[in-house]
Write a structure and sequence with these properties.
alpha+beta, Rossmann fold, Isoleucyl-tRNA Synthetase, domain 2, 5 domains, RNA-binding
Length: 862
RNA sequence: GCCGGGAUGGCGAAACAGGCAGACGCACCGGACUCAAAAUCCGGCGGUAGCGAUACCGUGAGGGUUCGACUCCCUCUCCCGGCACCA
């Protein structure tokens, strides 16, 4: 090996060694505690790896290596979430089979990842598009189906014309597909749904036992959106009709002054009076045309129309008008509400707009009424006021008024009392509502898992028996939807039209495919037993490896992958296939890697190599024009993407790994700088120079015995700090501590070989290639991957003398150096006698002396 | 509006349990080596005043608790992320 730090040679050598020796192969070993550390596996895009990927991968790799050295049996796998739209689009364009494109991309990703020296067990590599994998995805679907959790329904769904497919609620925001921004519209279609709502309560409650970031848990709670309240039945006056509303404020029932139905409510046209019919029909038409985006924009002004009908308030038999308005959502609750304008901001605004009466039923503790009684205007509704008389809305707690049996109670008690009252009379009941809706699980695409379903001539749907799985994707020569709008699989007529093996009768296959989330919902289970042909995973493997101990990935999957996976896992738990009802106990979100981008006055971006720094401004090299330098998310369009291959070529994988960890705390967003990479690269060169001479031998400063004692103490301090930092995932500070050690060691005349070996082990999880090389140079003929992690000796940390800062009135005035075993009295004496301290206490009385052992002295003087 | 997370030198950051603010690195400045440059090594580097010892100021703003606050409490500002007519 060359004398200088030849990262290229060292890294390729050890990467080859690890692969050939299967150094990181994991096998069940009941004598060792297991540790399952998992990365969110990537979608292998055609663009290859991005510097953002290795950030999380490096963090988990460091922990995997650390845990192995601590005696854990580590499961650290990698695979590909390879179904998905980009490959399918490419296939439509070029006619090339998506599987070929996918495999090519996987090869690129694998090569790039292997070049980073990540210690994955490559024998466990999985690919969700592999029939040997999706066979089991189909099996899990059949488990869901057989447990009654999969159903077909004709309902308004999110249809994305640009993608020619439907989408789940979780994939749509503000009327757009979250990934691409393409508009989404409502369209009635027959689709497969999964009953995730049946698990809403458990998905919510079990968040409490997970060590996940608060933000993610909060987002899931919000998405599930549990709310407690009551269903209340309202009769429509003068007709046999009635409707139910859901309210979280049954306590305000006496304040209800009107009701609102969603335009889509089945009752709207039936109860509308002839005089109002034209207006109502027109309103419903407009509402239908409005997209979700339009609704968002009109947030400020509320619209609606009176039906002419009246509802009977069950608590007091008052007749109140029924309106229809699009501020009431058809999808939530019953698509109908009772409106209490005095105590609900939305109802208040609507009442103001349409001059609907207001009744105050909650009196604020301050005693100020929200109603201005000096105003003359009176409402037609008895006991109510015109909206002009009401100056504000009150949604907080208070004392019930104008509410007969509830008067004098607070909000919480009133809720209980009225709910019981309604239940006794059969007029309503306490209920819980969720915002979460069932998961729309079918897509009109080719490149996804086929459903293992057969529809008989009788219309009955049966699941394909286990022995006939996988249902393979048929070969097609055109991946577009059919001309009559059927999914691409409908083109495979021979595949679609088959025979039901049980009945022997003709049957048709489902032509929708599963969404991309399906494969990632359970991949962590397959990693436990990835080559099992007889079952998705063996009980033994699942029992041993699950649950995931640490799961690292980006925060963008907060309510998609992470919620869907939790749901599937609970179903598998209920079905007895897994032994825990959550799949990952600890979750960590890495931050984003940002980069400088350079934009000229016209807004055009320039590549970093096209600009140079001149004092405190950046200029175009070609023209000298000053450009604006800013920190932004990396993207091709901003010309600021850093390619990991370039970094590895120039500085090596160890530098790349070390830099990504040294940039700052893992969970924070931070900007990439080339100078920063050079900084850690210099550190590794210093490490090399510390150990190795110009001719490639071990440096003479490394001695068998008699080395610098203070360096031994430094080593023990470093072991303690690095170990602690690793446990806290504080990689940046761990690296800083190792830099301090190296800086000190460079200055020492001689250091003990044993100490330097220990240091090499400390460095190895972070920069494994250089560490292996140094380990070998020091005479070891086996990998250090399983060498015991260094232990520190508390006794070795003790210094002979300690320096203690001395404050007077909390201000630092001096420092004293005392023997480590000096007692308090001696230290205080020394503090008061210190020449720097003396001027600040002379002529004053010391009224209090504070000594924090080993830390600090503070003298309080008057 | 609500929820989650932030704000510390020129920059990325550190201070784990209330005890020396700025470890470590980058950038920058000075020096050594060199014909020269690069690389490397040594030194400096929060602000103000001062030749200096040193003094004062300083962790988004204001208040509080404390011998002592980046850290705890209250109020507020700004930034990032999420949700938002969900009754």
């Amino acid at each position: 090996m060359a004398a200088h730090y030849d990262h290229e040679a060292i890294e390729t050598k050890w990467q080859k060694f690890w692969i050939e020796n299967k150094t990181f192969k994991a096998e069940i070993d009941h004598d060792k505690p297991k540790y399952y550390v998992l990365d969110m596996f990537p979608y292998p895009s055609g663009d290859g790896l991005h510097v953002g990927h290795p950030e999380g991968y490096t963090a988990t790799d460091i922990l995997a290596r650390y845990k192995r050295m601590r005696g854990f049996n580590v499961l650290h796998p990698m695979g590909w979430d390879a179904f998905g739209l980009p490959a399918e689009r490419h296939a439509v364009r070029t006619g090339e089979h998506p599987a070929i494109i996918t495999n090519r991309n996987c090869d690129t990703f694998r090569k790039q990842i292997q070049r980073l020296g990540l210690s994955y067990d490559w024998d466990r590599e999985i690919n969700t598009t592999d029939p040997g994998y999706y066979k089991w995805t189909q099996w899990i679907f059949s488990v869901l189906f057989e447990r009654g959790l999969a159903y077909e329904v004709e309902a308004p769904v999110n249809w994305c014309p640009a993608l020619n497919t439907v989408l789940a609620n979780e994939e749509v925001k503000d009327g757009k597909y979250v990934e691409t921004g393409d508009p989404v519209e409502k369209r009635a279609m027959r689709q497969w749904m999964l009953k995730i709502t049946e698990y809403a309560e458990r998905l919510l409650a079990d968040l409490d036992k997970l060590d996940w970031p608060e933000g993610i848990k909060a987002m899931q709670r919000e998405w599930i959106g549990r709310s407690e309240g009551a269903d209340v039945e309202f009769a429509v006056a003068g007709s046999g009709e009635k409707f139910t509303v859901f309210t979280t404020r049954p306590d305000t029932l006496f304040g209800a002054t009107y009701c609102v139905l969603a335009p889509e409510h089945p009752l709207t046209l039936r109860i509308t009076t002839d005089e109002q019919r034209a207006a109502v029909e027109a309103y419903i038409k407009t509402a239908e045309r409005k997209s979700a985006q339009d609704r968002m924009k009109e947030e400020v002004t509320k619209t609606g129309v009176f039906t002419g009908a009246y509802a009977v308030n069950p608590v007091n038999n008052k007749e109140i008008p029924i309106w229809i308005a699009d501020y009431v959502l058809a999808e939530y609750g019953y698509g109908a509400i009772m409106a209490v304008p005095a105590h609900d901001a939305r109802d208040y605004e609507f009442a103001k707009t349409f001059s609907l009466p207001i009744i105050e039923v909650i009196s604020r503790s301050s005693g100020d009424s929200i109603i201005n009684r000096d105003c003359e205007a009176q409402s037609s509704l008895s006991g109510a006021y015109c909206p002009q008389n009401c100056e504000e809305v009150w949604t907080g707690d208070g004392v019930l008024v104008n509410s007969q049996i509830l008067d004098g109670l607070n909000v919480a008690d009133a809720k209980k009392k009225i709910t019981a009252w309604l239940e006794e009379r059969g007029l309503g009941k306490g209920t819980v509502n969720y915002r979460l809706r069932d998961w729309l699980f079918s897509r009109q695409r080719y490149w996804g898992e086929p459903f293992p379903l057969l529809r008989g001539e009788d219309g009955v749907v049966r699941v394909v028996p286990m022995k006939d799985l996988p249902v393979l994707l048929p070969e097609l020569d055109d991946y577009r939807p059919t001309d009559d709008g059927m999914p691409p699989l409908a083109r495979a007529t021979e595949w679609v039209n088959t025979t039901d093996p049980e009945t022997g009768k003709p049957a048709a296959r489902e032509t929708n495919t599963m969404p991309q989330w399906a494969g990632s919902c359970w991949y962590f289970l397959r990693f436990c037993d990835p080559r099992n042909d007889n079952e998705a995973f063996s009980k033994e493997a699942e029992n041993y490896w699950m649950p995931v101990d640490l799961y690292v990935g980006g925060a963008e999957h907060a309510v998609l992958h992470l919620l869907y996976s939790r749901f599937w896992h609970k179903v598998l738990y209920d079905a007895g296939h897994v032994h825990t009802d959550e799949f990952a106990m600890k979750l960590f979100n890495q931050g984003m890697i940002l980069a400088y981008s350079y934009q000229d006055k016209q807004g055009k971006y320039h590549y970093p190599h096209e600009v140079e720094r001149d004092g405190d401004v950046w200029k175009l090299k070609a023209t000298g024009e000053v450009v604006n330098a800013q920190i932004e998310k990396m993207s091709k369009s901003r010309y600021n993407v850093v390619n990991p291959d370039d970094v590895v070529r120039e500085y090596g994988a160890d530098s790349m790994r070390l830099y990504e960890m040294f940039m700052g705390p893992l969970d924070r967003d931070k900007p990439w700088t080339e100078e920063g990479v050079q900084g850690v690269h210099r550190f590794l060169r210093r490490v090399w120079a510390l150990f190795v001479t110009e001719d490639g031998g071990i440096h003479s400063r490394i001695v068998e015995s008699g080395g610098d004692e203070t360096m031994t103490r430094e080593l023990h301090k470093t072991i303690k700090a690095v170990t602690n930092d690793l446990e806290n995932m504080s990689f940046n500070t761990a690296i800083a501590r190792m830099m301090e050690f190296v800086n000190a060691a460079m200055k020492a005349a001689a250091v003990n070989k044993a100490d330097m070996e220990q240091f090499t082990l400390l460095l190895s999880p972070f920069a494994p290639h250089i560490a292996e090389e140094l380990w070998e140079k020091m005479g070891h003929d086996t990998t250090l991957a399983y060498a015991p992690w260094p232990e520190y000796d508390e006794a070795r940390l003790v210094e002979n003398t300690i320096e203690i800062p001395v404050q007077v009135l909390g201000k630092l005035r001096g420092r004293i150096v005392v023997p480590a075993d000096a007692d308090q009295a001696a230290i205080l004496e020394a503090a008061k006698a210190d020449p720097k301290v003396l001027p600040h206490i002379e002529g004053k009385t010391v009224v209090k002396e504070i000594y924090i052992p080993g830390k600090m002295v503070n003298l309080v003087v008057k």
